[in-house]
Amino acid sequence: MPKLSLVVPVYKVQGYLPECLDSVLGQDYTDFEIIAVDDCSPDGSGAILDEYAERDTRIRVIHLTENVGLGRARNAGLEKAEGDYVLFLDSDDTLSDGALTAIADRIEATGNPEILIYDYARTYWDGRIRPNLRADLLKSDGGPETFSLADRPKLLDLLQIVWNKAYRRDFVARTGLTFPPGYYEDAPWTFCSLISAERIALLDRVCVHYRQRREGGNILKTVSRKHFDVFDQYRRVFDYLDAHEELAEWRGPLFRKMVDHYLTILERPGRLPQDARAEFFHRASADYRARLPKGFTRPAGGRGHKYGMLERDAYATMMSALTAVKFRQTARSRARTAINRSKRSAMGVFYQSQLRLPLDENLALFSAYWSRSVSCNPAAIDAELARLAPHVRRVWAIRADAVDQVPEGVDYVRVGSREYWAALARAKYLVNNVNFADAVVKREGQIHVQTHHGTPLKTMGLDQQKYPASTDMDFVKLLERCDRWDFSISSNRFSTVIWERVYPCSYTTLETGYPRNDVLVGAGAEDVRRARAALGLADGTKAFLYMPTHREYQPGFTPPLDLARLARELGPDVTVLVRGHYFYGSSPHVAELRRTGRIVDVSGHPRVEELYLAADALITDYSSAMFDYAVLDRPIISFAPDWDVYSAVRGTYFNLLQESPGAVATTQAELLRLLVSGEYDSPETTERRDAFRRRFCEFDDGHAAERVVRRVFLGEQTPLPVVPFDERPHAPTPAQALELVERA
């Protein structure tokens, strides 16, 4: 049997769950089990648990068939626990390094107490860490190592939580402790366990990092009548006292905790609906009078006055006092609003005037890559919108220096023009693969769609805070921009988990696949031949598409490949398509190769998807191109000569050298050997590619754009089912396309 059992209830935490589990599995102490309870979570949390359980036998997963709530999910895990001690960990929180060793050592040093209480710290999205404000209560007072609550009654003033304690399992069984349903389920368990324990010990060490989720995610930020559950929870506390006369001394202290809790719910905005406040007050007042202990003394000062108003059921008096406080808060809020209005005035009077006009319900504004082109996921959504909802007018935001590249027939507005600001102000739909400018105001009723522009290998969003050398981003402003999103598009669960964690805002994730990849699934032989012909590729010519990514640590671009040598050694029947930065235009070797067609600079090509269709294989390093090209099921070669530097400076989500989509080379000589010998396309690389595709091309079945249009623009709630992976088509290879065309 394990020494420790960690019960982890799980519900809608796919963005944080891996970090939680990793923090436990990475502990230097190993004598534990994890009982993870999937509370019928509607996201990918259950699948994440199963994946972890397959890799580590210390994890047992319980999948509940209906959502029962936090308390009952904990009970389900508790029933399966086999450890000497039970710990509870919320699935968006994490253990600190060495926490389990410290807990186990302290348990042994104090002779196996019934409860061990340890410290925690609050962690924030911006990297701030705030210590527990009552951490002083966990420090030694020079008394015995173990004690009862009567010896240190101030421990009741710790936050009413269960996850900062280890409970001896036989103590839990003996006292019959279980979690009740509803909000505030920690209160009965915490209070009843503390007053019942004869031997409590303390560990003055932060063992849990309590995540303060920016987008909410807990009951304290939810306006609901469910806050009335607090009355049932304290009824359970006092029922427990009634059943245990030997604990009568705790009526006074627990009465004080009850009243303070009721007042907190009444005073804090954002909990009770406005029309429920009087009812809540009257019920709290009734509890006060019914449970008032004989000889109870109210607290001094203003808190004591509130106790008195509650005892007299003086709702009107209490509301007058709260209104005075609210008035002062409102005055401060109005001052902030005036400042914000002053800032917005800098956007221009015209934009302000347009913001006052009604939204155009049939106008969609698109942008891609900071308004540099008509491309990527927004372009694919645009095309599908024209097919399914032709009544919606589609307009693109384009920078002035890029208007000459706009395809014929595309309606556009120049960024910064009056037409641009009018479209931003009045369009019902705004679709972008990056963020719109800080100056853009998100209007009520507007729908912002964030399509993203690649599956992330390198760290993104808030994760970049860990790699300051890679960015000078203002993360506060970043999240303010992300707050405008209504929908976030994802092509795989891997991306979904990352996006939801690094952009913690209140959007809805649409796991549709990437619209730009639809063509890679649905293209036919003629499409492939046409793409190759447009690039001047002759039949029988093998084309390698080379797409290196940007490196933040390089002031300019230095190609890691000697392109002239590469083309020379590959022979006359091979063409290298180069997409990226400008490559040595003054080199006579490269110039000669360009004249002969052996190297084709496709950096300015408007549609990368056509380059994918034309290429026999992809050579890349850390570019997200690998995830898209994998849809085609053609060879991918990872050329990573500076992996150690890149991964250290920018940070990555997995080790490309170990989890590559195919062959890997770290030197040009190695790359040449792979290409010349044909080893880049072998049974082994095919097997790697298959695993890569199943992981990262999960939803790319050719219907991504249609899913987005139906959900966002047509309001359909039931998505098209994803075509099973093994039943999906994909575009033919160039050789297959040639054979098909000739046969036709």
From TrEMBL:
Residue ranges of every copy of the Glycosyltransferase 2-like domain listed in the record: 5-113
Coiled coil: none
Top-rank taxon, per record: Bacteria
Gene3D superfamilies: 3.40.50.11820, 3.40.50.12580, Spore Coat Polysaccharide Biosynthesis Protein SpsA, Chain A
Pfam (any one): Glyphos_transf
Membrane topology: Peripheral membrane protein
This protein's name: CDP-glycerol glycerophosphotransferase family protein
Native organism: Streptomyces viridiviolaceus
